[in-house]
Write a structure and sequence with these properties.
There is one protein chain. This protein has about 160 residues and is mainly alpha-helical. It has one domain (about 5-155): Up-down Bundle (A middle domain of Talin 1). The protein contains 9 helices and no strands. The chain has helices spanning about 10-25, 35-40, 40-65, 75-85, 85-100, 105-110, 115-125, 130-140, 140-150. α3 (about 40-65) packs across α4 (about 75-85). The longest helix has 26 residues, at about 40-65. It is globular.
Length: about 160
């Protein structure tokens, strides 16, 4: 994908195209996912981090986000939501990041990769109140993300 192609991609395909391009940069180096993504321009980092947060949320809530490896992008997601113009999602992420920082012992103890450990962590209810707020705000994320990608088209693509 070339950056000049961005504005010609239909809105309904834009996030997928950009995400696929970024995953292509990672290739088979998933052990260095963070390093690869953080080597990209900041708008790319924000889209990757925010898209990951929203996708994980819809799949299993904020608990799943922090349980899985995507949680390492949490600070970028917070800054990214703010850059995209969603102060509310940024504030929710900031609160979730504080909870994650304050409960590192619990998160680490419950994060062995098994289904039982995820269920035990989920039952802790660490992010329950924030999940409800996140859901309401995340409904508008796709439009925000598309607009942000278009506004920063030069950063996406080779």
């Amino acid at each position: 994908m070339k950056s000049e192609d961005i504005l010609g991609i239909p809105d309904e395909d834009l996030q997928f195209a950009v995400s696929s391009w970024m995953r292509g940069k990672i290739g088979d180096r998933w052990d260095n996912e963070f390093g690869v993504i953080t080597s990209l321009p900041l708008p790319c980092q924000y889209v990757y981090a925010c898209r990951g947060a929203v996708d994980e949320y819809y799949n299993g809530g904020l608990t799943q986000y922090y349980y899985n490896s995507t949680g390492k992008f949490a600070a970028l997601a917070e800054a990214g939501f703010r850059a995209m113009g969603s102060e509310l999602l940024a504030d929710i992420m900031a609160q979730a990041n504080r909870i994650a920082d304050e409960t590192t012992v619990i998160l680490d103890a419950r994060s062995n990769g098994s289904l039982n450990s995820f269920i035990a962590l989920y039952n802790e209810g660490l992010f329950d109140k924030l999940d409800n707020a996140f859901r309401v705000e995340a409904d508008d994320f796709d439009e925000l993300c598309i607009d942000y990608i278009k506004a920063n088209a030069a950063c996406f693509g080779d």
